């Protein structure tokens, strides 16, 4: 009977009772955290102490495990093989050379993958792509010198994976001290393959465009596919010029995984993460520190790139291809596990947020990046 009377009390009585119950708990919790802030030592957590080099050294098992796991795996070449088989003619005498890839990991990764895609559609072999590198004295100067493929990426993995996926395409690597053959005059700039922007940006349209350009060059006049001597074509860089969403999910997913970070840099990333995990002491083995300091500015960014791909939560900026590359790769990880999320929905729900899939959040708004990246970037 008394319980029934209590239930019949007015709402104001119940609110007052709730506040009277919770207030002491809140005050007690506040006072406890005032004197014992999060992150400081407790009775269950010994005080942070310095450690010697032997303690700080990364364990071989941790590094080995880190290197054996990739965010998006396993690699399945079958969809790429199907696409390569759809190229009407493969010309063993036609070789593409990427002339001007530049920037940080986000841009160079996009340059390389677009370049390989165009080469597949043209039926051409390729020179193993390289890149412009920054001046250490002036980081804004991205054209200071030239860097080779493995400055950023795992060359052994790429060559092995590409042989499995598209054996029709030859990959040539310049030898030190050896000059390449004289290329065709001029640089070929491929037309866009963004069919989402124009239905005319098709595979057939690209092949027709390239064939017409080549015939206008001295080395290409009167030359049919597979005839004549070797022809080297310098190809201008493109970025997010392929409508990746119009391709099969298997192709899009696995094509992006052709480029893996150089294992030497991934090893440093593993060391950083393990040291961070040691009671947040942030001690880095001096041997690893020397290796980190020896990296170029863009190579140091690769360590961040490798670590942030595996973070519990990631946040980036809308004008950064670095941020978007991480977010898109992490989103692919979720897709591989059956996760159904529309990360672009946030554009209509929040102000100042361009991407959010629950794992990664890209803040800010920028029309150019938002128009190019969702369909043009490889995960």
Structure explained in plain terms:
With 379 residues, the chain is an alpha/beta fold. Among the domains are: 79-222 and 235-258, no CATH class; 295-375, no CATH class. It is 44% helix and 9% strand. The protein has 14 helices and 10 strands. It has helices at residues 2-7, 11-35, 53-56, 60-68, 78-85, 105-122, 155-165, 203-216, 249-256, 263-277, 286-294, 297-308, 321-336, 367-376, and strands at 94-98, 125-127, 131-133, 145-147, 171-172, 187-188, 231-235, 314-317, 353-356, 360-363. The chain has a 5-stranded parallel beta sheet with strand order 5-2-1-7-6, covered by helices on one side. Strands 8-10-9 form a 3-stranded mixed beta sheet, with helices on one face. Helix 4 crosses helix 10 and helix 10 crosses helix 12. The radius of gyration is 27 Å and the shape is globular. Mean pLDDT is 84; it is low at 32-56 and 222-227.
Number of helices: 14
Mean pLDDT, rounded to whole units? 84
Largest sheet: 5 strands, parallel
Tell me the span between the first and last alpha carbons.
65 Å
Low-confidence stretches: 32-56, 222-227
Number of strands: 10
- Pattern of helices and strands: HHHHHEHEEEHEEHEHHHHEHEEH
Please tell me what the overall shape is.
globular
Index terms:
single chain; 379 residues; alpha/beta; five-stranded parallel β-sheet; 14 helices; 10 strands; 9% strand
In short:
The chain is α/β, with parallel strands linked by helices. The chain contains 14 helices and ten strands. Helix 6 links the parallel strand 1 (94-98) and strand 2.
């Amino acid at each position: 009977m008394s319980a029934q009377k209590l239930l019949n009390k007015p709402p104001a009585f119940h609110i007052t009772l709730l506040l009277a119950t919770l207030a002491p708990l809140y005050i007690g919790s506040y006072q406890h955290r005032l004197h014992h802030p999060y992150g400081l030592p407790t009775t269950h957590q010994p005080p942070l102490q310095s450690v010697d080099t032997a303690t700080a050294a990364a364990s071989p098992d941790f590094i080995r495990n880190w290197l054996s796991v990739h965010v998006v795996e396993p690699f399945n070449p079958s969809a790429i093989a199907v696409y390569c088989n759809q190229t009407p003619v493969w010309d063993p005498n036609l070789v593409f050379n990427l002339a001007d890839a530049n920037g940080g990991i986000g841009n160079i990764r996009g340059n390389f993958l677009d370049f390989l895609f165009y080469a597949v559609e043209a039926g051409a072999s390729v020179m193993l792509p390289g890149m412009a590198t920054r001046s250490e004295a002036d980081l804004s100067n991205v054209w200071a010198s030239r860097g080779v493929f493995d400055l950023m990426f795992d060359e052994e993995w790429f060559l092995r994976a590409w042989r499995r996926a598209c054996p029709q395409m030859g990959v040539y690597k310049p030898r030190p001290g050896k000059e390449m053959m004289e290329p065709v005059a001029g640089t070929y700039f491929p037309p866009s393959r963004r069919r989402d922007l124009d239905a005319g940006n098709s595979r057939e349209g690209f092949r027709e465009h390239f064939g017409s350009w080549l015939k206008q060059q001295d080395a290409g006049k009167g030359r049919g596919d597979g005839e004549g001597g070797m022809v080297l074509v310098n190809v201008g860089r493109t970025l997010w010029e392929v409508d990746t969403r119009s391709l099969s999910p298997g192709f899009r997913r696995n094509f992006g995984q052709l480029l893996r970070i150089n294992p030497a840099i991934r090893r440093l990333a593993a060391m950083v993460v393990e040291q961070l995990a040691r009671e947040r002491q942030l001690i880095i083995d001096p041997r690893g520190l020397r290796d980190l300091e020896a990296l170029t500015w863009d190579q140091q960014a690769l360590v961040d790139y490798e670590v942030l791909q595996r973070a519990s939560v990631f946040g980036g900026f809308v004008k950064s291809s670095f941020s978007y590359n991480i977010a898109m790769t992490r989103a692919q990880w979720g897709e591989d596990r059956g996760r159904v999320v529309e990360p672009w929905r946030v554009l209509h729900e929040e102000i100042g947020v361009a991407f959010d899939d629950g794992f990664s959040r890209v803040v800010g708004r920028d029309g150019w990046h938002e128009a190019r990246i969702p369909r043009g970037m490889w995960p």
